[in-house]
């Protein structure tokens, strides 16, 4: 049985209503998934039963993602800010690769101990800037709704607004990553 704190019911309800892919991982040593919404399952092609208890790294398949992994590990180890937005190559259940614009933030208790890792995933493969902008707005609104719900349960969402403030730069970087991958690998 997972020793992670229980997920506040209000957050689960918000996950279920969200129009974007959301997942929640335990702050335990391997950061296993403990919750994901329907949009996450639609995006990845996995059923919830297949993913709960696994670290999201299984989505990387055989792709290198060296720089992305380094940045994610620094974030998870507390050495790189309060939240992160990172493009990386992921693989759907059917083997189809996609570029995931991953957002992660820590949910902490009142004394700063990480309880959960909140993540949102967005497929930026062959997407338009307007879709990324819309995703940024929806993610921002979702984070604004989660913040007071988490606070009521004694949990603090760290760094949500900071990451969103850099949205334009991240969109440009994600597009550059996609263009580089398309020209180098012809996979998308």
From TrEMBL:
<keyword id="KW-0157">Chromophore</keyword>
<feature type="domain" description="PAS">
    <location>
        <begin position="7"/>
        <end position="79"/>
    </location>
</feature>
<keyword id="KW-0288">FMN</keyword>
<dbReference type="InterPro" id="IPR000014">
    <property type="entry name" value="PAS"/>
</dbReference>
<keyword id="KW-0285">Flavoprotein</keyword>
<protein>
    <submittedName>
        <fullName>PAS domain-containing protein</fullName>
    </submittedName>
</protein>
<dbReference type="InterPro" id="IPR035965">
    <property type="entry name" value="PAS-like_dom_sf"/>
</dbReference>
<dbReference type="Pfam" id="PF13426">
    <property type="entry name" value="PAS_9"/>
</dbReference>
């Amino acid at each position: 049985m997972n020793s992670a704190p229980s997920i506040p019911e209000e957050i689960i309800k918000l996950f279920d209503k969200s129009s974007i892919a959301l997942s929640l991982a335990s702050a335990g040593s391997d950061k296993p998934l403990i919750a994901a919404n329907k949009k996450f399952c639609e995006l990845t092609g996995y059923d919830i039963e297949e993913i709960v208890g696994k670290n999201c790294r299984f989505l990387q398949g055989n792709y290198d993602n060296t720089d992305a992994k380094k940045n994610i590990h620094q974030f998870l180890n507390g050495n790189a800010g309060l939240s992160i937005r990172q493009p990386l190559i992921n693989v759907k259940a059917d083997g189809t690769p996609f570029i995931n614009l991953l957002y992660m933030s820590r949910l902490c208790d009142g004394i700063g101990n990480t309880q959960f890792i909140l993540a949102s995933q967005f497929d930026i493969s062959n997407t338009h800037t307007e879709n990324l902008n819309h995703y940024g707005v929806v993610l921002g609104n979702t984070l604004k709704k989660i913040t007071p719900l988490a606070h009521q349960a004694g949990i603090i969402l760290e760094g949500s607004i900071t990451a969103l403030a850099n949205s334009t730069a991240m969109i440009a970087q994600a597009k550059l990553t996609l263009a580089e991958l398309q020209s180098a690998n012809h996979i998308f």
